[in-house]
Amino acid sequence: MSELRQSPLHAEHEKLGASFTAFGPWNMPLKYGKELDEHHAVRNAAGMFDLSHMGEIWVNGPDAAAFLSYALISNMDIVKVGKAKYSMIVAEDGGIIDDLISYRFSDTKFLVVPNAGNTDAVWEAFNARTDGFDVELNNESLDVAMIALQGPDSAKILVEQVAEESKEKVENLSYYAATQAKVAGIDTIVARTGYTGEDGFELMIYNADATALWETFAAVEGVTPCGLASRDSLRLEAGMPLYGNELSREITPVEAGMGMAFKKKTADFVGGEVLRQRFEEGPQKVITALTSSERRAARTGAEVYVGDNLVGTVTSGQPSPTLGHPIALALIKTEANLEEGAAVEVDIRGKRYPFTVTKTPFYKRGE
Length: 367
Description:
The chain has 367 residues and is an alpha+beta fold.
């Protein structure tokens, strides 16, 4: 097994006493103290995450938008400069290679951010799809660090570190938008995106600047360093899928509820014929939200039943720190015809517990 890659912030995490875990090819902080404290810090104030394991692929050239419209399932021509779009890249058979975010910085310039474990696969797929397009691809994934600042206080905390001439621009940045600004004197891509269900920002800088930016926010009262454990519980409460759990090569965007991304798309794209047919036929299984008033949480791999019929499998599940009861996502057969409020049972270590079909997100800020 090859040695795990280290974030440019690895020494900072060690100073804070982090516990580490393998995430794709990276060794990343799982938690620094109690993961519940980190979770609540994001919900109530501000948490800071090292996301330097995420990929960064630049797509430049006159055909950048057309190329991405062909390579991804979404129509990227309609993305306005300064905005971002969540999409998916699929194989020829429609299986999901990755879910990712693309940021448009000009008519001819996009930044694509894939997931850590899928960056190499996305890079390979992009290079295989460039024929006929006037584009240049540049993979800066190992040169760029990313720090996420998430939580209700994140905007106020961030703006205090932004250069005066950019403060208003950052304050007024809309959701799923990005801009460039000096943060703590460092040239930074500031994106108002995130994976926690809270307001927040993802800050992209070169590796050499990562420690300085991290230390700037670490010194701010009310900012809590957070690891991947709390990031997972936060994203689950927000009903956001995780590649390797809800998403995989074994399902298509139709099963993942992303059919609308290409429903009105007229341009050809990789996997398009297969996906359009699947969309017409309807998915065989769908990602479904489950909740329970019991204490036992359903974990990944637990079987879901209606009576004696096995109807699906839990893909993510744990007790919700914010809501105080178990929540889960599961892949459920559509033939089970489960609507919101339907009762199911989940097998947890040989005993079945009652769960109820609900809607996502489980948690929504402001409610």
